[in-house]
């Protein structure tokens, strides 16, 4: 369920957040959740509403940061802490959702797996 961090061979080994896709006895694939989160339109062929949900989670994350800053001025300095925690949690949910949609599509059809691989969003990793 949680995302891992692994080097991306398509970006000279730069670390990125990944979701693992593995079948019993088969290869282990890494799905670049960070790139899919930055460009949610890439997920449109796999889930019509996926880009909307990812953008909504990001927008809510920004709203919680603004509410945290306003709350720290209007109510108390400590209001910043729960607001930032909610903001970070929503950002993590958006990344997880992007990886989940891609993983589900790759499990469902071989064409989706090939499409993600050709966009350099998937690569083979060792356990």
Structure characterization notes:
With 127 residues, the chain is an alpha+beta fold. It has one domain. The protein is built from 4 helices and 4 strands; from the N terminus they run βββααααβ. The chain has a 4-stranded antiparallel sheet with strand order 1-2-3-4. A hairpin with a 5-residue loop joins strand 2 (14-22) and strand 3 (28-32). Helix 2 (50-74) packs antiparallel against helix 3 (80-108). The radius of gyration is 17 Å and the shape is elongated. The chain crosses the membrane at residues 52-71.
In order across it, which strands form the biggest sheet?
1-2-3-4
Number-wise, the strands total 4
Q: What is the multimeric organization of the chains shown?
A: single chain
Percentage of residues in DSSP E strands: 15-25%
**Main beta-sheet strand count, sense and barrel state:** 4 strands, antiparallel
Helix content: 40-55%
Individual helix count: 4
Structural domain tally: 1
Order of helices and strands: EEEHHHHE
Keywords: Membrane, Transmembrane, Transmembrane helix
Transmembrane segments: 52-71
Question: Short summary of the structure?
Answer:
The chain crosses the membrane at residues 52-71. Keywords: Membrane, Transmembrane, Transmembrane helix. The protein has 127 residues and is α+β, with helices and mostly antiparallel strands.
Topology:
Layout: E1 4-8, E2 14-22, E3 28-32, H1 33-38, H2 50-74, H3 80-108, H4 110-118, E4 122-125
Antiparallel strand pairs: 1-2, 2-3, 3-4
Helix pairs in contact: 2-3, 3-4
């Amino acid at each position: 369920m949680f995302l891992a961090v692994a080097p991306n061979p398509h970006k000279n080994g730069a670390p990125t957040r990944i979701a693992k896709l593995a079948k019993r006895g088969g290869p282990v694939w890494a799905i670049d959740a960070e790139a899919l989160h930055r460009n949610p339109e890439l997920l449109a062929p796999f889930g019509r509403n996926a880009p909307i949900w990812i953008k909504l989670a990001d927008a809510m994350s920004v709203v919680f940061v603004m509410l945290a800053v306003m709350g720290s001025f209007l109510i108390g300095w400590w209001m910043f802490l729960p607001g930032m925690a909610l903001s970070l949690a929503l950002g993590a949910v958006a990344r997880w959702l992007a990886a989940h949609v891609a993983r589900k599509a790759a499990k469902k059809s071989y064409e989706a797996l090939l499409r993600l691989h050709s966009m350099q969003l998937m690569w083979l990793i060792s356990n």
